[in-house]
Amino acid sequence: MPTYFRRPNALKYFKHRTRTRTARSLFQTLLIFVLATAAFAAPKKIILDTDPGSDDAMALMLALNSPELDVRAITVVPGNVTAAQGLDNALRLVSLANRCHIPVAAGAQHPLYQKLITAEFWHGHNGLADIELPPSKCKVDARFGPDLIIQLVHASPHQITLVPVGPLTNSAVAIEKDASIVPLVKEVILMGGGISGGNVNAAAEANIYNDPEAAQVVFQAGWPLTMVGLDVANKTLLTQKYLDQLGSTHGQVNDFIYGAAKYLVSLSAKFGSPGTAMYDPLAVGVAIDSKLVEAPEMHVDIETRGHSLAAKRSHIGKGTSNKTFWMETTT
Ligand code: BDR
Ligand code: CA
Hints:
binds calcium ion, disordered N terminus, alpha/beta
């Protein structure tokens, strides 16, 4: 017979034990719930592949300062600036954010087949809106960017979101080197392309224009891919109103972002735009919260052979009409 039945207050004791057990199982349920919620809300592991770049810098700071994201690596690709300048910029930015533990790796040195066309006219002589950041306290990671992508994907299968916000050279090289990463990548959220016109010429958006062959590899790889293209990014204008808000608070990172945004807003004004598009920050924004955009499913090809298009936006090719008339029926 259990000892407690022999006690005068056996029933009380039994009740007490029952209550304790109930309390314990409630606690266990709660613990499981909390752990499950924590696991559910665990930050998303991302690799940011970038060509820094003024809006890349904003995207990078957004990623580094978002608790929803766990930036596992930053890989650098040439685009807005050369590979060497981009690497220097990435290191200075990560240093400014005091995040030297995040690996920053150099990647491809040029596009797969095309000649690199940089964009200092837009991003400033150093790619960072002419702002001189202090030299970096962080050291470059010795690994080759695409190899680092491959390594991290294998180390965390089905958990890594790849966020390329520059030309797609590094991502394409990673696939070419090890195609087995494709089904192991959780998803790709990239800034690039446009389904209704470009910003470099009538058809092409800058990231795709810089390395169309790499883009075709990435778009056809077969992994889940969200294209944050010009169609949506052009709607995210940072205007004077937001600039004023940014300028009302201060800090190292804040002041840098304010300076870069100010530079871009005044440059955009010269092109007749009331604000500057948040291209790369939007891709990071979608990684943080996919509900920011609507993304209908479609097949996207990168045309590298000869599709003809006419510029629909008046600022593209302004003053360079080749006297070609676009025929359209009006019925
Ligand atoms: C894209 O091109 C670059 O200039 C920007 O950083 C962005 O990634 C926009 O077309
Ligand atoms: Ca970019």
